[in-house]
Structures are given as C-alpha cells and as structure tokens.
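re: that chain from earlier
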Amino acid sequence: MVITSWEWILILIFIGLLILWGPQKLPQLARAIGEAKREFEKASKGIFEEPQSKAEENVDEKIIELAKSLGIETEGKTKEQILQEIMEKTKSKK
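^ sequence. v structure.
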C-alpha cells in the first residue's frame, strides 16, 4: 500500500494540530466543528423552508377570503372542501 501526497498532507496537518493544541484539545475542537456544521445546516434549511410556509398561509387566507366573498361558510371545513364549494359556486354563476 502506497501513501499518496494527499495522505501525507493530512498526516502532517494532524501532527501539526497535535503539537499546537495537544491531545486533550483535539476532541473539543472536533466537537466544536461538528456543532458549527450542524447549526449551519439547520439555519440553511430554515431559510429555504420558511418562505414556503408563509406562502402557503397566504394562499389559505386568500381562499378563505374568496369563499367568504362568495357567501360560503368556512367553519369546520377542510381546504379541499372549501375549494370544491368555490368551484361549484363559480360554475353555477356562468
């Protein structure tokens, strides 16, 4: 088994870290890097998911407004039921 240049670089970096911080600090450093990565992924997921939920809320509000303007009762009904009634009401007006 031959050690390539990349593997030598990694070995030298690891030895340098051992010399700089000592064997006691390396687990703490690795844990801190892992937590930082996890927080970054969590934050980036939140950025992309948040606008979708707000957009869905806006659509739901618009559906309820439309139903009320057409005189449809929305209490206790699912979104699909409300949409179905809106479709029936608009078809009968044509």
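Residues 5-93 form one domain.
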